[in-house]
Each structure stands twice: as C-alpha cells, then as structure tokens.
Q: What sequence folds into this?
C-alpha cells in the first residue's frame, strides 16, 4: 500500500540553500519538493507534519561510531547507540570493526554480526571491515568481506583491543594495495607507533610528572604528522582512496590539503570534541576526556575552526567510543579507557558552536550529510533533501535550548563530557525513511526500522 506524508511550513535545506517549501514523501522516499500548491492537498493530521518554526535538514550520517555489538554490549549496543544517535538527529551510522567481540576481521565474523544486528537498530547502518596485522595475508578472506562492508579501517598505532592489531609501516603498504584492489576507501587511525611507545616509556618513568599532561605529551602532533605523511606518500604511489579519522591539528589538516591539491584521493574527518574541548579541559576533568589523539591546546582548536571555515575539513564524525564508567576511574590515566561518548550531542554541539561563531549553517551541515554520503558511495540514497532519495529528515529549532543532563542520555552508560552543557538548538523530530523515530515530546518510537545498507 502506498503511504504518503507531507512535511510543511519548515525552512528546508536543499542544494539551493534554505527554502520555504513542502516535502512530499511517498513510500519512504522524497517524492517531490513543492514550492507552491496549485491544487488543494488531500491531507489529514495523520499525514502532515507541521514544521513551523523549524529548520528541516537531511538526516545526519555518522561514519564513525563504536557500538561494541555483539560481545561488549555492556559498554554499548546497537539498540542503545542507535537510540542516542536518533535523539541527536542522526539517521545513518557506520559501525567500526573493533570494540565488538570478536572484531570484524574475517568473513565469518562479518556474517555473524550482520545476522545478529537484524532488527536491533533505530537508524540505518553500515559496517566497516578491519585490516590488521593478522589478516593482511588472507586475500581470499578479505575479498569475501569486501562486498559486505562500507570501507576498510586500519590502525597505525595500538588500538587497545587485543584482536584488532595495528598494521606496521610495511603492513600499511599491503593495506593500501588491498583497498585499491577492492575499490574501497581505507580509513586510518594515523599516529606513529614508534614515537608513541618511546615517549610513553619515557614519561611513565618520570617521577612527579602530572600524569594527564604526560599522556598528552606522549602522543604529540608530530606523531600524527609522521603517520599522515607516510600514508599520503603511499596513497599517491598506489592510487588508494584514503580517509583520515579524528584529525586533531590544523598542521595535519594543512598537510592533507597539500596532498589533495597534488591529486591524492584523500579526505579527512575531525570530531566535535577536538572543536569544543581543549587540553586544559582534559587536565581538569581527566579520563572522561581521554582520547587518542589527545585533545590539543586551544590554539589548535581555533586552528581547526579556521580550517573548517576554509572548507579544508571534509566530514565530522562522533568517534563515539563508550565503555563502563569503571573503566574511566582507574588508579592511573594510563590505564583508563580512551574514548568519548558523544554520538547524541555531535550535531547539537556543532550547530551550537557554529551559531556562536557566526558561521553559516550551510557551511556546517554538509560535513554530516552530503559530503559523507558522497565520499562513501551512498549519495544515491542519503545525504540530501532531493526527490528520489530516502526521506531522512531532522527538524531543528534555533529558538529552543537543549540541556544535556543524565536523564536525557540515550546511550547505555550515563556519563559524557557533554553532561550539563546547554545547547542553543533543539532536535524536534528525527525522521527515517518517512517514519518519525524520535519526537522531543513523545520520545523514541517503539519500533526499530533501521536497515543495513
């Protein structure tokens, strides 16, 4: 049976910018954008959403989450993680291949994870596949995996997960060739392991050093620079499409920008925590803000915003990396889990900060919508408000506030560095393929409509 829905009276973000138009949705897709109504609409309250006073933007795509499902669901799970995503306006996530147990480093694990996740997600999702020091010598296995993943992910430093080993400098060459052969993007956690190990050993042996400061110093920008430069040279050599995740420094962004201009097929992501928090916040708050690369000094934060304003940053991802609270309250910062819970607040934080900085939203929104879809090959379904695409929409008000308190958290473990922050925007509704999955008045839908892309 054909279903029809209208979203009316909102200010809609289209390829032409914000427009006062109505959106007609038919059978989960955007059917048309209507500027004026030549004929009366045959409508009831059941098939019209009144978006008066709202911006209507494409559903956000978060290409970088760790939902730990299956195997570590007590840290997070697809159900709770996707709930938090939907509450924050995200309608599609890409789940990373590590932190679930077992990691997605072979075909059997991939199949089992896909089967396990069926009917667990509130939002649409895709899965990353992992390239590690242990599976690069299994070309047949990797070829089988390739068709079922959105892209490949590899670590150039230790991941913190035993069954997801780093790729050595020599292994990065193999990873580049594998990704090129499969016509897939290779995403890299780019920090130079040798430098990190040397500095970590040195700082751990220094008595009286502030541990939090020592951790930051053990993972300097130079470790990012060296790893990124190495990977860029290989990408140029092999013609591999690469994507750097969670870049933390304007210096590194500049490196990547030069490579883009020289013809390297490269994009980069940064995360809201590198744009909102800084090293001083980490020194004050500790492990709740521990991540890798670590948070940088305020000048670097401002430098990233300058890069963003110049169009040098391609995508924003949450890098939602949850854990049990006990894993953040260890006796030493070195042993605490490195990861930030933020998927629910990514776009609240980004839009709030953009408004405060007087950055036009048309420059911010594509970083979580069309640019992600284009880079990862799903632009025929996601990322824009355009006829023929999935009707993934978010209704946002700029005249209402959101308080990030514990009772509002959608993710499993109720702690986050965003706790008690007030954002000057509010997500009113999140719509996935024409179905309202979150409403700020009634909460989440009971049904889980998310599909694997």
A:
């Amino acid at each position: 049976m054909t279903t029809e829905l209208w979203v009316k009276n909102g200010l809609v973000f289209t390829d032409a910018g914000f427009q006062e138009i109505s959106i007609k949705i038919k059978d989960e897709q955007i059917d048309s954008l209507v500027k004026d109504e030549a004929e009366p609409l045959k409508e009831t309250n059941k098939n019209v959403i009144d978006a008066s006073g709202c911006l209507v933007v494409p559903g956000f795509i978060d290409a970088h989450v760790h939902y730990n499902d299956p195997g570590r669901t007590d840290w997070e799970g697809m159900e709770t993680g996707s709930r938090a995503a939907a509450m924050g306006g995200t309608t599609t996530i890409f789940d990373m291949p590590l932190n679930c147990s077992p990691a997605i480093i072979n075909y059997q694990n991939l199949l089992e994870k896909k089967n396990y996740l069926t009917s667990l997600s509130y939002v649409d999702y895709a899965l990353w596949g992992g390239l590690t020091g242990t599976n690069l010598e299994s070309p047949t296995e990797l070829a089988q995996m390739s068709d079922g993943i959105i892209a490949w992910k590899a670590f150039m430093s230790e991941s913190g997960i035993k069954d997801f080993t780093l790729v050595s400098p020599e292994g990065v060459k193999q990873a580049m060739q594998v990704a090129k052969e499969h016509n897939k993007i290779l995403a890299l956690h780019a920090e130079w392991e040798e430098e990190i190990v040397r500095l970590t050993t040195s700082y751990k042996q220094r008595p009286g050093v502030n541990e939090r400061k020592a951790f930051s110093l053990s993972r300097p920008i130079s470790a990012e620079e060296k790893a990124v430069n190495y990977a860029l040279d290989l990408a140029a050599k092999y013609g591999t499409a690469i994507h750097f995740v969670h870049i933390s420094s304007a210096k590194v962004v500049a490196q990547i920008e030069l490579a883009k201009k020289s013809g390297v097929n490269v994009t980069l992501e940064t995360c809201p925590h590198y744009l909102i928090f800084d090293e001083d916040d980490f020194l004050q708050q500790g492990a709740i803000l521990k991540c890798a690369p670590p948070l940088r000094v305020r000048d670097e934060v401002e430098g990233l915003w300058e890069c963003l304003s110049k169009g040098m940053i391609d995508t924003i991802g949450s890098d939602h990396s949850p854990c049990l609270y006990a894993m953040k309250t260890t006796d030493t910062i070195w042993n605490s889990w490195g990861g930030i819970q933020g998927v629910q607040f990514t776009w609240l934080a980004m839009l709030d900060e953009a408004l405060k900085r007087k950055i036009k939203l048309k420059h911010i929104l594509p970083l979580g919508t069309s640019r992600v879809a284009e880079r990862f090959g799903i632009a025929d379904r996601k990322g824009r408000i355009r006829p023929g695409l999935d009707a993934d929409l978010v209704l946002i008000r700029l005249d209402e506030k959101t308080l990030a308190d514990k009772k509002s958290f959608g993710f499993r473990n109720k702690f986050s560095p965003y706790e008690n922050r007030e954002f000057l925007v509010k997500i009113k509704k999140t719509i996935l393929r024409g179905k309202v999955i979150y409403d700020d008045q009634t909460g989440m839908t009971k049904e889980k409509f998310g599909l694997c892309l």
Remarks:
- The chain has a mean pLDDT of 96.
